[in-house]
Amino acid sequence: MPSVPPDPVLEQAIAWLVQLRAQPSGVAPDPALQVRIDAWRAADGRHETVWSELMAAEAQFQRLVALPVAPAQWQQPLAALNGSRSRRQARRRWLGGVALGLGSVALAGFAARQAGLFDRVAGQRYATGTGEQRRVVLGDGTQLALNTATDVRLQFDAQQRLIALEQGEIFIETGRDALSPLHRPLLVQTAQARLQALGTRFAVRQQEGVTRLSVLEGRVAVDPGQGARTVIVPGETVDIDAHGQLRRQAIPAANMDPTAWLGGTLVARDMRLGDVVAEMARYRHGWLQCEDSVASLKVSGVFQLRDGDAALESLAQALPVRIEQRTRFWVRVAAQHSQ
Asked: For residue 8, which phi and psi values (nearest 5 degrees)?
């Protein structure tokens, strides 16, 4: 049977519903979230149609969950559902609005709720190009931000939520995994280590030969594959090399704010000019280099990543350097009086 392509409208509707249901029991929905959902529904007639069908499906789920069903009566159908490609596709079609009788979907609907719809994101990829950033809300409620030139692959199943960072940089605010009957661990795999979120907000960057982890809230366990785990606490950044060695420092002491890119800026603190230029180059097409003679100059400041030319010009105003630009795609930061 041919695979059923994902429906972006349905995917977004599910993401909204996950955020809405992530509110604690008995607490009124976040007004700002409700405004965003209402605006999305009003933007397109199909948005409203899919939302209504999804709410109706959830109501059926809720009625089924309320039934006095013994675990043995749903565990076997659940295992069969998760192991059957054709049934997974049938569940997607049902969620998309195919009319099925309640009696024919009772077990499948209940099992789908218990499974958390995790197979919807198995193998899914997200990517950004040079200078592009993207924010995604995953089905478990996790908020994922991708920085420039980033590629991630998701593997969510019954046991885990795995985000493989193949290149680039991400920021994660972990979701509560409210649609799963188990609290599946949220893992990030890089070339150097496997990271486990322990209820947290953190950034991960895949560099050449090094993984950089910065923790803002909660904790993250680092497993470099050498048999020992290290827990990183809020306010810490750590570099993990290919040998499993960790180099830790406090985020305020770092030369660069590891999450400033979320606001579209580069925040440098006594940073080498060569490193600042290399960081700016990540957001530009073409060739951007810094002359060796000025690479060790120290820079502190806030630079707008969305206007790279203006950021370079601010360097020329603050330092004894000039900007050589032969074409739009060939730029060099050179000593002011060099030839």
From this structure: -60, -30
